[in-house]
Structures are given as structure tokens and as C-alpha cells.
């Protein structure tokens, strides 16, 4: 991979010069070309005055097409002119933290906030060099060209979407198709109407899509490939999405602190590689496994967290994910380090229980396993599942799991809900779920 020391503004200008009349945005039946978007963002920049930080609201869970298009315009206008886009609210403390990170050799680009599914969101400062080159790696894995059409299924405030959708599309001169809103029906309608070829999403969005396709008819035959990331999933689930959508699904491991994905399996890789691993670490990035089994990475993609103390780690990002590297150099992710439940001295992986439940009970659309305090064992296991309550009871689920899992891994607490709470990008809001369960105990 050849790294480029350019800004996103320079990258965008290159694409405008190559494809001035090519459509970059399709939104509510309207088309905007690259040259038109260049002019629109220049005009938007005039509204900013002397502001160095441009805030972009990131609160709506069902963002409309107009809002999503406006976010693209605002972000590009900001970064083209050397300002910093902030997807959320910028406090005085964060302003000071950014100023302390300003150096002549690093061009800062944006502040994004982690989703905060289990704790306080982190404010992460990224830079142009990391975003441009990370997007190039995404493009290579997708095999993307100017003929592709990206479905914008995830808000731009998520690093996954910012890198894998917007900047990746701009890198090759492709089109971005914006659905009317983020409801599953409108995502599938957008694929059908605009003949989208690339569908990047988190597991819950893919789950909703394949579930909808089981009862309703949409033409999604234009799809070629897409990334799945942002949350855990099983290999069986990966294969189901891959096969039901009849496209080549791509795995990747990443996070906001890593500018998006840092591992890739190309869309042409065999299904067993894509379903069973998260690919190989991108060129220029180092990866190692700690004594505790945690995946550590180091390199240009590691961004700066502004609102927490960061001890000296030698540049290594502690991802919080556990895994191992096989003999072929592929990385396998086995779960989250901090999610390990310690019940009476036994270490228990929530991911194992989640995968077992999903594989054993077809009624379960999604589930989350986490610990709750227990005076005797220290921690007990709680499982919350989204399913039709008339087709599956907590008793049936516990009874079924007791026949598969060893006794100490069977959840003591099980709740069946119609839906599980979500963050704005579709991840299960585990922190919110824990609060609700504490009220029930």
C-alpha cells in the first residue's frame, strides 16, 4: 500500500478534477455532481466565519435524508478549509485538549465520540493522514471503483461510516446514495431504487434487513459487497447475511480510536476466511497479542483520546478485544476483554453464550449477555434477548441452554423483549439495558 500525505480537501479536489460531472450524491430523487458539491461546500464554508471548530449534531436516531446530506456538506466544508469537524458538543475542556495536541506536522481533521454502549463516550481526535490512508485500505478491500454506489446506512458521526462510506467513495469517485431515513424498509428501497453495490452496516442493521427479506420482496441483486463491523456477530450469522443478500460480505475489526477498521479480508477472499476471521492487519500497522490475550495495535491509524488519561503504552492501542493470529496471519476475535464475567472464580465469555443462544434458537433476533452483581458468586450471568415472546419463553431458553452449556455458564437471569435498546448507529445499548435490568432484580 502506498501512503499519501494529503488532506481530505486535496483528495476531494483530485476527484473533482477527474470526475467533475459524475454524480456523488443521490438524495430524495435529486443528483449532485462532484463539481456541484465542491461549489456547495465552498459556499457553506463562507457561513463559518472565523470558527475553527464546526459542530455537527449527532443526536437523531432516525436521521432524515436532508439531515444526512447536510452533515456531508458541513463536514466537507469544514475539513476542506482546514477547520475541525466535531460530531457532537465541544466543551471548553475539549477545546483546550485539542490545542494541546496541535503540532505543525499533524493536520487534525475531526472529533468523533465513541458510542458509549457500556460507559462514558470518549472524544477522539483524528487527523487527515490517518483518515485518507485508512479509507484507501477500505477501498482496496472493497475493490471499489468509480462505478460503485455506496448506501449510507450509518450516520456520518460513526467513524465506520465516515471512513468506509464517505471518504472511500470520494477516494475513487463513486456515488453515495442516501435513504429517506434509516428505517429498514427505506434502506432496502434505496438499494432497489438506486441499484446500490456496496452496503456497509453494523450487525443489527444487517439482521433487520435479512429478516425483512424473509417476508417482503425487494430487489437487492445489485449488491456486490460491504463491510460488517461495529459489534460482535457469529460466523453462522455472517454466512446467513452473506448468502441471503447474495453478495460478498467483508469482516473487519476496528474502532473510533483506530480511525475505523484496521484489519481486512478482501471481498474476493473465500467465505470460510471471511466468516471465521476478521482478516489481516493493514499494511503499516503492527499487531500483537498481550499476555492477557488482548489485541494491541500500533501505527498511523491510532488516534488521540482527549477526555481520558492515557498512560505511556509505547504507542500501542489497547483495543479491548481478545483474539489470536493463526498460522496464515489471519486475526481471530474471540470477545471483549472487559466483558469477561467472573462467576465464583470461573472466567466466562459473554460472546460464547450469545453465540450459543443465537445458534440454538432461531426465534432470537439478537441478544446481549452481561454480568450483574451477586452477593455469593460476585457476578451472575444475565441474558437479554429480542424475540417474539409468544414463540419463546425465558424458561424454554434456559432449559435449552442448560442442555448445551456447562452448568456455571447457564444464565441465572433471562429476559425476553420485543426489542433491545440501541445506540444511534444500531448497536445494542448495553449500559441502558443494564440499568433497566437492575430495576427488575
Which key features would you list for this structure?
441 residues; alpha/beta; Rossmann fold; GMP Synthetase, Chain A, domain 3; 2 domains; 13 helices; 25 strands; 34% helix; globular
Describe this structure in words.
The chain folds into 2 domains: 327 residues, Rossmann fold (3-Layer(aba) Sandwich), CATH 3.40.50.12780; 101 residues, ANL, C-terminal domain (GMP Synthetase, Chain A, domain 3, 2-Layer Sandwich), CATH 3.30.300. Strands 2-1-8-7-9 form a 5-stranded mixed β-sheet, with helices on both faces. β12 and β13 form a beta hairpin. The chain is built from 13 helices and 25 strands. The longest helix is centred in the N-terminal third of the chain and has 16 residues. It is globular. The model has no long low-confidence stretch (mean pLDDT 91). α2 packs across α3. It is an alpha/beta fold and 441 residues long. The chain is 34% helix and 24% strand.
